[in-house]
């Protein structure tokens, strides 16, 4: 009977995989020796593997280029990175190396744009798509970009009152987009997104506030749904409705030339993950072209806003199992040296699952366990994998340390977890390592010190 952890993985999945392989009995990630990092830096730690950012950007560009050629599509494709997925300089600067544009969602995002421009990382010809609700501070910062001569700032109108507020602040001609308030997935407790303008009101809004306005021109229609890009009846139905609005709007607005289909490409959350990206891109281009041909209007340039897809698969976090608690005849709790609430907030807030694998001891027997964090909160746990309602790990042995890794954690976790701030039960922020294509390691931040937290708390 094969009872080693390695046997379990080989029998359950196609393994090794592109980013995961074994060296003896421990795990390599993109040929990066994780056990060596553990020996050098200790646990817990987070890491960002920078080359994966560029790799995913180029993958997406290849899929769109191929689909555009396949369908003889006459529009261009533009890749935007939405900064809210990870605002860190090392992420955005790495993305910009791959000729991408940026999408913002709040006032301080514009401050990041200014810093990137000052450092020579972007120029005034980059597209900057200003999305989200726009309070006075956000509007003032957008106007600052316009007045400095940024040529391709497109203000995505989220409500009918925004345009007049922006125009009152600048004499510059404003390029605008209109966000569609899409219908939400049936599982949501409300019917229509709070963001954007309703399908039936968009043409009316254009005619009343933009058509005869000499100080602005409509350049983009923006479409996004919370479930992301999925091969589902819901997604295709919402895209079809969006395309009807685009075609109707294009017939009365000659300046409209861009369609932003948002983002939401899924990322790998299990060794069993499958998603046909190439098919989805090809069919999206096909649907857009068919809709425009039927309405006899020019096809738009396509924009996407990939956030998690850009940065998610570059990130990981490594823990040590400190001890095991047996609470009854069936449940074994492996206690990690950090907190899921602190380091992987999506795992408890929205029950998100990541790729979870042991780093070492793959030749040992395995057992079913639950994973618990250091806080005294009953929600600080991780109890299942994406493909099965269970976690299996090498058997706990107090004499043989066990290390585990969560992978593809690079999007949202630091900002939602409150990087550098106060965390639940004062569990410290772990150290963070930046790793380049040559496997050179830079310590971006050390583990949070007690003095830092006490200072924040006023002690």
Helix and strand topology:
Blueprint: H1 5-12, E1 20-23, E2 26-29, E3 32-33, H2 34-41, E4 45-49, H3 51-70, E5 77-82, H4 89-96, E6 101-104, H5 107-118, E7 127-130, H6 136-147, E8 152-157, H7 162-167, E9 174-181, E10 197-198, H8 202-210, E11 216-222, H9 233-252, E12 258-260, H10 277-295, E13 301-305, H11 308-311, E14 315-326, E15 332-336, H12 340-343, H13 345-349, E16 355-358, E17 366-372, E18 381-382, E19 391-394, E20 402-407, H14 413-417, E21 431-435, E22 441-445, H15 450-456
Parallel strand pairs: 4-21, 5-6, 5-13, 6-7, 7-8, 8-9, 9-10, 9-11, 11-12, 12-13, 15-17
Antiparallel strand pairs: 1-2, 2-3, 4-14, 14-15, 14-20, 16-20, 17-18, 17-19, 21-22
Write structural notes for this entry:
The protein has two domains: 5-50 and 316-456, Lyase, Ornithine Decarboxylase, Chain A, domain 1; 73-306, Alpha-Beta Barrel (TIM Barrel), CATH 3.20.20. The longest helix has 20 residues, at 51-70. It has helices at residues 5-12, 34-41, 51-70, 89-96, 107-118, 136-147, 162-167, 202-210, 233-252, 277-295, 308-311, 340-343, 345-349, 413-417, 450-456; strands at residues 20-23, 26-29, 32-33, 45-49, 77-82, 101-104, 127-130, 152-157, 174-181, 197-198, 216-222, 258-260, 301-305, 315-326, 332-336, 355-358, 366-372, 381-382, 391-394, 402-407, 431-435, 441-445. The strands form three sheets. Strands 4, 14, 15, 16, 17, 18, 19, 20, 21 and 22 form a ten-stranded mixed β-sheet that branches. It has an eight-stranded parallel β-barrel with strand order 5-6-7-8-9-11-12-13, surrounded by five helices. The radius of gyration is 24 Å and the shape is globular. With 459 residues, the chain is an alpha/beta fold. The termini are far apart. It is built from 15 helices and 22 strands.
